[in-house]
Specification:
The chain is α/β, with parallel strands linked by helices. Helix content is about 35%, strand content about 15%. The chain has a 6-stranded parallel sheet, with helices on both faces. Strands 11-10-9-12-13-14 form a 6-stranded parallel sheet, with helices on both faces. Helix 6 links the parallel strand 6 and strand 7. Helix 1 crosses helix 2 and helix 3 runs parallel beside helix 4. The longest helix has 16 residues. The chain is globular and about 75 Å long. The N and C termini lie far apart (about 90 Å).
Length: about 550
């Protein structure tokens, strides 16, 4: 009697199931039909059919970000070769720069056609290598368990990130012995904090007069949030969050100092510049967080820098570091919270920084017909504290970064690499991962039109979410820079937009249009009591170009001086 066999595609799907994969995002392709067929035998894996591969990859990236907050499993995506893979590369880049675990499987040309520039052929290992942790091609079906297990381990270990595996279509239909077993899921390896390094850290704290912490990033999770907050509150340490990591600490904490990145509180920037001790935990101290590697500076004279990161390759890579600690950030945070050192006298700076943040993050009165600060304040009043806010890139996001309170964890899905079009796909992924929570996608007009087609995915899969489209008729961020550098010389930044409320209705959403703050408050009151897909189209004034208070007129006037 011949030995039992199964297809390589079935083995691949079995391996994913063993690794804990419960959801796959995809645009179907002929190159991996065998995988789609094998998935029919695995009903426990939810297959989310998307409309464009960029949306697929963004959803998988966001799902990996949410999983990283818990068990650490990567988000999983399947796309086809050539155009499918290149479309998906934007999400791989986001996962890489945002340190989020993700695996992208790419259907590939048959092995016999490799190297001939066959139909839609790309050398995927070469194409993706600069923007992922590992890129490879599985030519031997018997090695699928090895590759899949390694992909998961690589994606979640050290600095989390994306992995790309190419799957030759002829390989997927090969028969392999049924006895080939998937490898079991391995949890993220954790390196404990070194006691000597902890002692050195507390000695630095005992000598410090004006310390500050910058937190959030690789390996951050609920445990890290809980224990680091305990540690910081115990000693009065001001805590700033890295760019778009605002849920790394509860905003109700009496030591929360606000967020760094684009448009931060000027008083927080000065606090970081004047600190004699900077403690960075999880954050890479990237360009956005540090305002172009200036806050703190690369050499930070007069400052001591403690850098805690799970990947030793990130320590000393860009910044000169006085004390480098390669360890899991949640274990470090727990150790710091439990550490007793009589030499550290609690600081007043934490409470001072918190007062400065609250003053800056409280909206002031405005004569704008549609006041985005007031709209965010209305959302805070109307929506639950554990609402998840998802956004892409654009000046519109600045109002939410400044005035929203990211109370829950995870509560913020936003690309630190500044990719447009992320918000809607991320919100679809969030609503499927947390169906009991309120999810809001906030998008600018240009930002929305890069992936608004994923509203169809939301409808098809029963996603329960609110979409807020801020329409000022321009690529606002670029227009702001344009007006600063070339005042009054407008080129390529104006947008002729559709009626977004009508577009939302065409997708089957409940929709409303708001031209005033009162319009928005009324629409929000109705939207929050509904279920399913809801879209609100906000007509904003381009003159009020940024949450910082910058205006088009002001930018032009300053350019004359």
């Amino acid at each position: 009697m011949p030995d039992e066999t199964r297809s390589a595609a079935a083995l691949l799907v079995d391996c994913l199931a063993v690794q804990g994969c419960d959801r796959i995002f995809t645009v179907p392709g002929e190159s991996f039909l065998a995988v789609l067929d094998a998935l029919t035998e695995r009903p426990e894996i939810d297959v989310v059919t998307c409309r464009q591969e960029g949306g697929v990859a963004f959803m998988a990236c966001a799902d990996g970000a949410m999983n990283a907050a818990g068990e650490g499993r990567p988000g999983v995506a399947f796309v086809t070769r050539g155009p499918g893979a290149t479309n998906a590369s934007i999400g791989v880049h986001v996962a890489h720069q945002d340190s989020q675990p993700m695996i992208l499987f790419v259907g590939d040309v048959a092995r016999s056609a490799q190297g001939r520039e066959g139909f839609q052929e790309v050398d995927f290992a070469a194409f993706f290598a600069p923007i992922c942790k590992w890129a490879a091609r599985i030519d031997d079906p018997a090695r699928i368990p090895e590759y899949v297990a390694r992909a998961h381990a690589t994606a979640i270990s050290g600095r989390p990130g994306p992995v790309v595996l190419a799957l030759p279509e002829d390989m997927l239909v090969e028969q392999v012995p049924a006895a080939i077993a998937p490898r079991p899921f391995v949890t993220r390896p954790a390196q404990a904090a070194c006691p000597d390094a902890m002692q050195a850290l507390f000695a630095l704290l005992a000598d410090a007069a004006s310390p500050v912490a910058i937190i959030g990033g690789a390996g951050w999770n609920a445990k890290a949030r809980h224990h680091f907050q305990q540690f910081a509150e115990k000693i009065g340490l001001p805590v700033a969050t890295a760019f778009r990591r605002q849920d790394a600490i509860a905003p109700s904490s009496p030591v929360y100092a606000g967020n760094l990145g684009y448009g931060p509180n000027p008083k927080l920037v000065e606090r970081v510049k004047n600190a004699d001790l900077v403690i960075a935990v999880g954050a890479r101290l990237g360009e956005a967080t540090t305002d172009g590697y200036a806050v703190p500076s690369l050499e930070h004279p007069g400052q001591r820098l403690v850098h805690v990161h799970p990947d030793p390759e990130e320590l000393g890579r860009v910044y000169r570091t006085d004390l480098a600690m390669a360890c899991a950030v949640d274990d470090f945070a727990e150790c710091a919270a439990l550490w007793e050192d009589a030499g550290v006298i609690p600081f007043d700076a934490g409470a001072e920084a918190n007062r400065e943040w609250r003053e800056w993050a409280t909206p002031s009165s405005s004569d704008a017909a549609l006041d985005l600060a007031a709209c965010v304040a209305a959302m805070r009043e109307a929506l639950p504290e554990d609402t998840i806010i998802c956004n892409g890139a654009g000046n519109f996001a600045g109002w939410w970064h400044r005035y929203w309170r990211y109370d829950a964890y995870p509560g913020q899905l936003a690309p630190t690499c500044g990719a447009m079009g992320y918000g809607v796909p991320a919100a679809v992924a969030a609503s499927l991962r947390y169906p009991e929570r309120t999810v809001v996608a906030v998008a600018g007009d240009g930002d929305f039109l890069m992936n608004g087609q994923e509203l169809a995915t939301a409808m098809q899969h029963g996603a329960d979410l609110i979409v807020v489209v801020v329409d000022n008729g321009a690529y606002g961020t670029i227009r702001m820079h344009q007006e600063r550098e070339y005042p009054g010389r407008v080129s390529a930044t104006n947008l002729a937009n559709p009626d977004f409320a009508a577009l939302g209705a065409a997708y089957g959403a409940w929709s409303a249009r708001a031209e005033t703050t009162d319009d928005f408050i009324a629409a929000l009151a109705e939207a929050k009591d509904r279920k399913g897909l809801r879209l609100m189209h906000l007509k904003a004034d381009l003159e009020r170009i940024a949450a910082s208070g910058a205006t088009i007129t002001g930018l032009r006037e300053r350019a004359k001086d």
